[in-house]
Write a structure and sequence with these properties.
It is built from 10 helices and 8 strands. It has about 475 residues and is of the alpha+beta class. It has 2 domains: about 350 residues, Outer membrane efflux proteins (OEP); about 35 residues, no CATH class. α1 packs across α9, α8 packs antiparallel against α9 and α9 runs antiparallel to α10. The two termini are about 45 Å apart. The N terminus is likely disordered.
């Protein structure tokens, strides 16, 4: 008979689990990074996911967008310099009539008459009335304009709001990175479980196929009844069905894992050997269950706290619109009908502009109310998230405690099933038990092996969950 494939965790699991259950009661830990330990291959995969995951790249762009908005808000406080050039061509428009002819021509006529009486020629001409257009036919203005906010409380509060929003996005990105790490580890452990299960079912299929062959041979020689053949065939088909389902689950787990890493779905994965798995599992099982862990370090709380600060600053910015504003504007350049510099063309103008809105149809009040409601919603969301994360911590701790006990029971069950199968196999070779008893023992061993593998995967996942819900270990 082909030797049984011992996968995932060896006999050291049982001893380690026993030591864990016999330890002292729970102790308080402030920050134990060992909860975030993982096999070397899993750590490498986490780094690859953090570098290539598409959803993480989208979140990173969100952070860059928030930082760009902060830079734009800060720029509003800086002086602004613009170069403005204007060339105008006009025709028609309003005019101003100056009656120069009506005023001077009578005087000129009198002077001309006097000169004629003296025998001299008339020298004073008749002049027409003057019509001066408001718009010049050709005009240009080229100038530099400098504007500087002097007192704009809305801008300063807006900068605080943008800064808090950027901090919130940064914390949200860190929270997503931590969640991605947990997803990668959980997916990797699931793939290890299904891969090991395939090996166990392969070994079981060798035994059931051999039992079916033997029973058919005995039936052909009249030494066994048809029911024994049918039972052996049923057991073999059951194992084949399990094997097909586990192969499907393994392929699905591999595809999902590769999806997280943004690579082809059929990319092979690196298998972690049993020695390293035992080394990672031992510190998890050798310690008493910690107490006093909280979700205070979670990045989600940091993100929401910053979001509340941003909403409060936005509310202040909206309320500040009721205050007056003061801006400084300085302009200097050249103007006239032609492009030239010098006297009559150069100009400089400085203005100090104060503005106070007296009525805006209650638009400002509505904006302030909307900002206040948004802040209240975020405050309630922060409190709800804090309670929900505390619940996650409690559930993770309870799950780890149950998983530790289940791991001990699963290993002892496997050892018992191994010993029982060895005894039944020996008695079957001696002809003391029938094939049905032998197949029952082998089926129980398969179930025990699969249960042990599932328990091992749950132990690693439960430890990773504790690290995630308490944010104990730093992010890579």
């Amino acid at each position: 008979m082909k030797p049984l494939r011992i996968t995932l965790l060896g006999l050291a699991w049982c001893a380690a689990a026993t030591a864990a259950t016999e330890g002292t009661p729970g102790h308080s830990v402030a920050a134990d990074e060992s909860w975030g330990t993982a096999p070397a291959a899993a750590r490498a995969y986490v780094s690859e996911a953090l570098a290539g995951n598409l959803a993480l790249q989208v979140r990173t762009l969100d952070l860059e967008t928030a930082r760009a908005r902060l830079a734009a808000a800060r720029a509003a406080l800086q002086p602004r310099v613009d170069l403005i050039a204007r060339l105008s061509v006009a025709d028609g428009g309003r005019t101003t009539d100056v009656p120069t002819g009506d005023l001077l021509n009578p005087v000129y006529q009198t002077l001309n008459d006097y000169l004629r009486s003296q025998g001299q020629p008339a020298t004073f001409p008749r002049i027409p009335n003057v019509s001066i257009p408001f718009l010049r036919e050709h005009e240009q203005e080229t100038k530099l304009r400098l504007t500087q906010p002097v007192y704009r409380p809305e801008i300063t509060r807006g900068v605080r709001a943008r800064r808090a929003s950027a901090e919130s996005e940064e914390a949200s990105l860190a929270a997503f990175r931590r969640e991605l790490r947990f997803s990668v580890l959980s997916a990797y452990y699931t793939w290890l479980q299904t891969d090991a299960a395939v090996g166990i079912l392969d070994s079981s299929l060798v035994v059931t196929s051999e039992a079916l062959r033997v029973n058919r041979a005995l039936a052909e020689n009249g030494q066994a009844t048809e029911d024994r053949v049918l039972r052996a065939e049923s057991d073999e088909l059951a194992v084949r069905q399990q094997q097909a389902e586990v192969v499907r689950d393994r392929n699905s787990a591999r595809a999902y894992f590769n999806f997280l890493l943004n690579r082809p779905l059929d990319t092979p994965l690196i298998r972690t050997d049993e020695t390293e798995l035992r080394a990672v599992a031992r510190p998890l099982l050798d310690r008493p269950l910690p107490t006093g862990l909280t979700a205070a370090r979670r990045e989600e709380l940091t993100a929401l706290t910053a979001a509340v600060a941003a909403a409060s600053a936005s509310e202040s910015a909206s309320a500040a619109r009721s205050r007056p504003t003061i801006d400084l504007a300085v302009e200097g350049g050249i103007q006239g009908e032609n492009y030239r510099t010098g006297h009559g063309s150069n100009f400089v103008q400085a203005s100090l502009v104060a503005q106070l809105n007296l009525w805006d149809g209650k638009e400002r009040r509505s904006d302030t109310l909307r900002a206040s409601l948004a802040r209240q919603q975020l405050e309630l969301q922060l409190e709800e998230t804090r309670r929900r994360l505390d619940l996650q911590v409690q559930q993770a701790m309870d799950d780890f405690a149950a998983t530790t006990i289940a791991m001990q029971a699963a290993e002892r069950r496997r050892l018992a099933a191994v010993r029982a199968f060895e005894l039944v196999s020996q008695r079957e070779r001696e002809g003391l038990v029938n094939q049905l008893t032998f197949l029952d023992a082998r089926a129980e061993l398969t179930r025990a092996e699969l249960n042990r593998i599932i328990s091992g995967q749950r132990l690693f996942t439960a430890a990773a969950a504790i690290d995630r819900v308490t944010a104990l270990s730093p992010l890579p």
